[in-house]
Amino acid sequence: MACPFFMPIAKSEDIAWMHSSRLPLGAGWNGHCAAPGHEGAIPNNQELRDFCNMGYAANCPKLPAQRAWDAVRFSVSRDQGSRLVLWFVCELRHRPAGHGTLEYDVDRGQWMTIHPEPRIQKMADCYLQSYLQRRTQPASKNPTPSAN
Questions:
Q1: What stretch of H or E contains 133?
Q2: In the beta sheet, which residues pair with residue 96?
Q3: How many Å apart are CA 142 and CA 116, to the nearest integer?
Q4: CA–CA separation, 34 vs 41, rounded Å?
């Protein structure tokens, strides 16, 4: 669940993320704040780790008191090879406050449906990028233990 006011720009390579593929956007991201009054502010590494990439950042001083969402989560609901369907759920106070699907055509490299909020769409782009990167990387080979 990423912060709905976070505008991710590039994967974060300078923060040691534990299990980065488990993060809400499939990796840790650098970016900037889009909260009212803080547009364009660049979060430091601690803010990126504790607030921006994680959502439910009640202790973040930039989070507006009045907001439609506290967090956004994504998941792949259908992977048909050339077509992906992502679910998104926007949450407020740990409850659903909006949801829907976004469709992506892998062969064309374009979205078939998009989210009307640019921040949420950018997060979907980042989640998709992380997903496609994991999907195309071969699984690591673990030697099979021999039976004695």
A1: helix 118-136
A2: 91
A3: 43
A4: 8
Q: Which of 67, 86, 72, 78 is nearest to 129 (CA)?
A: 86
DSSP 3-state of 84: strand
Write b or e for each residue in 95-110: b if 16 or more Cβ atoms lie within 10 A of its Cβ, otherwise e: eebeeeebebeeeeee
Would you state the structure tokens that stand for residue 94, as one six-digit string? 């740990």
pLDDT tens digits, residue range 25-34? Answer: 888 999 999 9
**Residue found by looking up tokens 């259908």 in the block:** 78
Burial of residue 113 (CB within 10 Å: 0-12, 13-18, 19+) is exposed
Average pLDDT, the chain: 87
Q: Evaluate whether 27 touches 49 at the Cβ level (below 8 Å).
A: no
Q: Where are the domains of the chain?
A: 6-135
Question: What is the phi-psi region of residue 4: left when phi exceeds 0, alpha when psi lies from -120 to 50, beta otherwise?
Answer: alpha
Compute the average pLDDT of residues 29-58. 90
Q: Which two tokens stand for residue 29?
A: 């991201």
Is 31 within 8 Å of 13 (Cβ atoms)? no
Closest residue by Cα to residue 62 from 127, 4, 12: 4
